Structures are given as C-alpha cells and as structure tokens.
Amino acid sequence: MEDRSPESVPLVAGPADVSSEEALPEPPAPRLNQTRTGIKPKALPEAEADLADPSLYFNRELSHLQFNMRVLEQALDESHPLLNRLMFLLIFSSNLDEFFEIRVAGLKHRVALGDDSTGIDGRSPQSVLGEISQIAHEQIERQYRILNEALLPALEERGLRFRRRSDWTEAQRAWVRDYFDEEIMPVISPIGLDPSHPFPRLVNKSLNFIVQLEGKDAFGREGGLAILPAPRSLPRVIALPAELCEEGFSEAVFLSSMIHAHAEELFPGMRVRGCYQFRLTRNADMTVDPEEVSDLASALRGELLARRYGSGVRLEVVDTCPDELADFLLREFALSEQDLYRVNGPVNLTRMMALLGDLDRPELFYRPFSPGLPKNFKKEGSLFDAIAAGDILLHHPFQAFSPVEELLAEAARDPSVLAIKQTLYRTGADSPIVTSLVEAARGGKEVTVVIELRARFDEADNLALASRLQEAGAIVIYGVMAYKTHAKMMHIVRREKGRLRYYVHLGTGNYHSKTAKLYTDYSLLTADEALCEDVHQVFQQLSGMGRARHIETLLHAPFTLHEGMVAMIDREAEHARKGRRAHLIIKCNSLTEPKLIQALYRASRAGVECDLIIRGMCCLRPGIPGVSENIRVRSIIGRFLEHTRVFYFQNHGKAEVWASSADFMSRNMFHRVETCFPLRDRKLAARVRKDLETYLVDNCQSWRLQPDGSYVKQTPGDAAPISAQETLLYAYAAKA
C-alpha cells in the first residue's frame, strides 16, 4: 500500500459539500451527508402545482449514490465495533462496484445510442453521468482517507497491522520472497505488449498491473510496456506467520505489495521502471430478448460468459501512476478522463472482506446473539399443528429463520404431505431449503419449484440449483419470461382427516439462511384458508397459462398491486378530506415509481400524516409547501440491512397492515411477479405497527431526507438515545 494520501477531502462531510445555489437553509447538525441531487433553482410550487413537475422529484441514480454515502458514513461511527466499521467501508466498495456495473453502464449505453430522453426528474443521461462522476470522485477519495487516516491507525492500536513494503523487516522480506516463489510465480502470466502480443482482455474487476520496462529481452525485443494480471485464485490479503509479527500484533500484507516488490523477477535481465495497480469495471448487466430465446437457461449460460468482458465503465489506478500510462489505459478501454479514479491504496478493497472472516478478534465485532422464537411457537411437536392453531409471524434476524426451514424439512419427511411448491430467488449454494426440496422430490412428493434464473449476480448459482432439483425429480420452471419472479412463497398440501389442507409461508425476504441473519425481514406462516387459496392460484398462474386468476385477499404484481397501493393511499386521503385523522407508514427499500409518489403527494395535500422509512433510493421530495409538507422521509442504516417491505394504513380506525416482497418501484409493480399480503391477525398487525413506530423514534441510526435532497443524521441531543435495531433485538432475540 502506498504512503501518499490526498490532502483536501474532509473525513466528515459538512455544510461546505452543499451547493449554495441548490441548498435550502437548514439548521446546523453535527454530521451532514449532503450532495446535489438534481433539483434546479425554482420557486416553490403553488398549492395546485402540477404533480408531474420535474422539480418535485430527485434523480434516481443520484439518490442511489446518497444511500452509498450513508453506508460509508458508518465507517466513522464509533458506536459500531471497529471491524464492523471496516466492513461498512468495504460494503461501500461493493455497492459502488455494482452501481457502476449496472446503473452507470446503463446510462452510458443510453448516451451511446443517442438517447437523450429525460426521466421524471427532467435530467438527461449525460448530465446525470457528469454529476455521478463528480460525486463518486469525491466519495472514493474520502473513502481512502477514512481507511488510511482513521481505520488503519485504529486497527493498529488494537494489534492488527497491514504492513507496507517500506516497513517489512528482513525476516518478513525473506518470507514474502519465498511466498512469491512458491505461490505466485507458478501461476502468474506476464504479458508483454507488442504487435504480436496485443493488449489482453481483462476480466471485470480483476487486479492488474501495468509495468514499464527498460532493456532487451531474450529475443532482442526492446522494453516497453507489459501487463501483469494478478492470479484470481490467490487471496488479496495474506496473513504473516505469528513468529514474524511484532509481539502483540497480528500482521498481514497485500498481494499487490508482494507482486510489486518482485515484479522485476518476472522480466529477467530487464529493469522495471514502474509498476502500477489498476482495475477495470465493466458493464455487467445481462439482457435476454424474450422473442429470440427458446431456452432461457442456455441463453443465460452464454450471457454469464459475456458479462466478464462487457464494455468498460470505470478505470481505477493507484494514485502514483504516471499520467501517460493512465491515458494509455483510458484509450485501450475507450474511456474518458471522468471515468478515471486515482486511489491511495489497493484498487480492489472489496476483496479485503475475506480477511474479516478469518480474524479471531470477537471483541472487535458485534457480540453474537441467539435469534428468538415467538411465544406461540413450540419446539416440540409438529409445526403444522402450531400453524393450524394460529398464524406465526417472525421478524428476522431478531427472530430465527429456522422455523421456515424446519417446516419444509418436516414437510419433506411427512407421509401426509402430498405436494410442495416453492419460489426461489436468492437462496445460497448450500441451502437447507434446497436440501429439503430434493429430499421431498426423491421421496415421491409432487415438488414444483419456480427458480428465477435472472436474479442479478446469482444466475450461476440458480442454474446449478435448477439442475440439482431436476436431477432429484422436481418440476423446475423459470417463471414468466418477461417478468422476474420475485415473490417469496411456499405452499404445502397435506392430507388431514380425509381432506386436503394448505399451509403457506409468505415473506418479504429471500429463502437464504445467511442473509436472514443480516437482513431485517418478516415471515408469515399461516393456514388461513383464503390466503392459502390465493397462493395456490398464484402458483397455478406461474406454472400454467390462461387469463389472470381471481385472487381474493392478496395483491399481486403485475396485476393488482400497484392499483391496490394507490387505492389505499387515496382512501387515506379521502378520510383526511372528511376531517378524520389519517396516517400511513410505508417502509421499503426504494421509492421511485411516479404514480405512487403522486398518490403520496395527494395524500399530503389532503392532510394525511405520511411517515416513509425508505432505506435507499427515494425520488420523492418531502417538505414542499402545498405538496409534501406532511411527508417525512427517513433512512435507517445500522448493524442490519433494513429489508422489510411493510405498509400501515390507519383507515379511520379499521387499520390495515400489509407486508410485501415488492418495493415502490416501477420494476416491482409492472415487470415482476410479486405478492403483498395482509396481516389478518389483529395482534400480529398491532405488533408490526409497534415495530414501525420504533423506527420512527430512532435517533441513533436514522437519517432524515431534506427538501434539498441532503440527508441529516438524527442525534439524541438531550433525549434518551433510541436505536430501533437494538430495541427490536432486545425485544425479540433470545435472552441469555
């Protein structure tokens, strides 16, 4: 890792980060996360303003960047344990990689096609790309300053050190040389650049070096440039043996430092004038034309290979790289200066995540906890009996995901179970869910699995799962070609006392035991006849053909979910117009769909108190007189990833609570198969409302969206500190 660091980027964003032309005056706050989001100076709208006015909407991509900035901010939050702070910084890198691979790549593709059309915010793709570049450069520079000036020194104080080449001891240098000779040299392939060795195709996000050479090689060729691709099979951070570490320290070195230190050995007889890290991020979006595909699985296998070599969208180079080499790389990848990011450290920070799993320093992580179980859940006896006695609601990760897995495992073994139907979106390669489905199919039960092969970045795993299930005898279908199946449903048919009875699981998250420990989600286990029949009808619709089926209690996309949500928001507005108290709470990951935003604007105008808990993208502009002064938007960023989609409507004393697999986005409402289910048990509905109210009083991990598009971190001040996640953890997790 290089020693140089940028001089001008503050670790903590402050009021100076806000454009004076675009910012609305706000009271000072201890910590601000503010950046421009596309609102142009304009007089505030009148009471009857056009709700399609672009000034009422934030740009989606810039709002997405704001979310990533809030994640980065956690790396400075000392209420998190030190290694969790490092993890947040690495998650920022991972999030930004995907942002460039998908969102920036999409904008660049539109520009290349000459598509200058604007979104609801009125911004053209070219203008958004320019602002993304400006913000991303600032935040990436800030990220490396946080790493170098805050986290690495703090880790060293706690006995964890990343050794720079300049700081290696003689014994460490000898060990690194042996490691290079034994582990790196046999698998690394230097590529000289000349007419017979053109610039190689480099894999997306791979670590590479560009090397300047002097002298002549064995064939008499004059030195010039060479490319060193770092072997992908090797770890990016290597722990030093304990006997080589300073007493009281665990120490590690970066693979990039090892390669840099011994680059000259790869070019014997020549002098290495310079060796510089770089990494190319490519377009990783996958498109499959439904009119040209006869076999989705085969088409996706081809697309997965192509994804590794999509067009370039971002070039990262170490900040010591000379301008002429950076310019050479930009030309090779057909990129411009605004696509170049100079970094003060490793160019592939995300790969440091692997090290965290190997560190035996529990005191530097959050303390582990045991997820709880609801009071009406019985560890002994049949889960079917427990569900038949009443609905069971689980709030992950505070409560265990294991009952969902145990229900399916019991169904696989139970001779009274005749059929199982299941949707799988993101599941995991070693999923207990899949193991139970395989067991059920091999046991002769009718097993039908709807696998969404196009779940982004999980396509390869899902193709493997599909093959495994098919080999076991399950019926595997890939949903509907033009609509991703994003609904989370399990349907079990069981013979009881001479008749068939249905049992169902509906959830807001995936059937993934690992993410169930990290993401907040709801799971409903029910034998409610109306809900179970509706889930049966949705599965029939997915596996067969025909007109849309009659669904009694569920809302489901792409048919009734959008109009149902708009109708419930409008119903709340009508209550307010009649002088009744009206209140709604919407909690989801993203809010970008224009008609839903306009329904919320209408509700605010009517006097409805609207509390929105939107973790990520939010295109709605709150606090605008005559339009959205009754709307409050907050984002919760904490130990767990907020993932629940749940909606509360006061409805003049006849409150309704709904949970869903869908966000308030166009893709969820119109281009995916989604479910939204009511909590028909009043006690469970009241419990969810109480959970939502806990988020509304959070003053530790809550960020409030301002009318100018900035987010302000909420602080307790003189009040008692309240963390929603800690409160729920205390309320629901198993007590030691």
UniProtKB/TrEMBL annotation:
<feature type="region of interest" description="Disordered">
    <location>
        <begin position="1"/>
        <end position="36"/>
    </location>
</feature>
<dbReference type="Pfam" id="PF13089">
    <property type="entry name" value="PP_kinase_N"/>
</dbReference>
<dbReference type="InterPro" id="IPR025200">
    <property type="entry name" value="PPK_C_dom2"/>
</dbReference>
<dbReference type="Pfam" id="PF17941">
    <property type="entry name" value="PP_kinase_C_1"/>
</dbReference>
<feature type="binding site">
    <location>
        <position position="519"/>
    </location>
    <ligand>
        <name>ATP</name>
    </ligand>
</feature>
<dbReference type="InterPro" id="IPR036832">
    <property type="entry name" value="PPK_N_dom_sf"/>
</dbReference>
<keyword id="KW-0460">Magnesium</keyword>
<feature type="domain" description="Polyphosphate kinase C-terminal">
    <location>
        <begin position="383"/>
        <end position="545"/>
    </location>
</feature>
<dbReference type="InterPro" id="IPR036830">
    <property type="entry name" value="PP_kinase_middle_dom_sf"/>
</dbReference>
<comment type="function">
    <text>Catalyzes the reversible transfer of the terminal phosphate of ATP to form a long-chain polyphosphate (polyP).</text>
</comment>
<feature type="domain" description="Polyphosphate kinase middle">
    <location>
        <begin position="172"/>
        <end position="355"/>
    </location>
</feature>
<keyword id="KW-0547">Nucleotide-binding</keyword>
<keyword id="KW-0479">Metal-binding</keyword>
<comment type="similarity">
    <text>Belongs to the polyphosphate kinase 1 (PPK1) family.</text>
</comment>
<keyword id="KW-0597">Phosphoprotein</keyword>
<dbReference type="InterPro" id="IPR003414">
    <property type="entry name" value="PP_kinase"/>
</dbReference>
<dbReference type="InterPro" id="IPR025198">
    <property type="entry name" value="PPK_N_dom"/>
</dbReference>
<dbReference type="Pfam" id="PF13090">
    <property type="entry name" value="PP_kinase_C"/>
</dbReference>
<dbReference type="InterPro" id="IPR024953">
    <property type="entry name" value="PP_kinase_middle"/>
</dbReference>
<feature type="domain" description="Polyphosphate kinase N-terminal">
    <location>
        <begin position="57"/>
        <end position="162"/>
    </location>
</feature>
<protein>
    <recommendedName>
        <fullName>Polyphosphate kinase</fullName>
        <ecNumber>2.7.4.1</ecNumber>
    </recommendedName>
</protein>
<feature type="binding site">
    <location>
        <position position="643"/>
    </location>
    <ligand>
        <name>ATP</name>
    </ligand>
</feature>
<keyword id="KW-0808">Transferase</keyword>
<feature type="active site" description="Phosphohistidine intermediate">
    <location>
        <position position="486"/>
    </location>
</feature>
<feature type="binding site">
    <location>
        <position position="95"/>
    </location>
    <ligand>
        <name>ATP</name>
    </ligand>
</feature>
<dbReference type="Pfam" id="PF02503">
    <property type="entry name" value="PP_kinase"/>
</dbReference>
<keyword id="KW-0067">ATP-binding</keyword>
<feature type="binding site">
    <location>
        <position position="456"/>
    </location>
    <ligand>
        <name>Mg(2+)</name>
    </ligand>
</feature>
<feature type="binding site">
    <location>
        <position position="615"/>
    </location>
    <ligand>
        <name>ATP</name>
    </ligand>
</feature>
<dbReference type="InterPro" id="IPR041108">
    <property type="entry name" value="PP_kinase_C_1"/>
</dbReference>
<keyword id="KW-0418">Kinase</keyword>
<feature type="binding site">
    <location>
        <position position="426"/>
    </location>
    <ligand>
        <name>Mg(2+)</name>
    </ligand>
</feature>
<dbReference type="GO" id="GO:0008976">
    <property type="term" value="F:polyphosphate kinase activity"/>
</dbReference>
<feature type="domain" description="Polyphosphate kinase C-terminal">
    <location>
        <begin position="554"/>
        <end position="725"/>
    </location>
</feature>
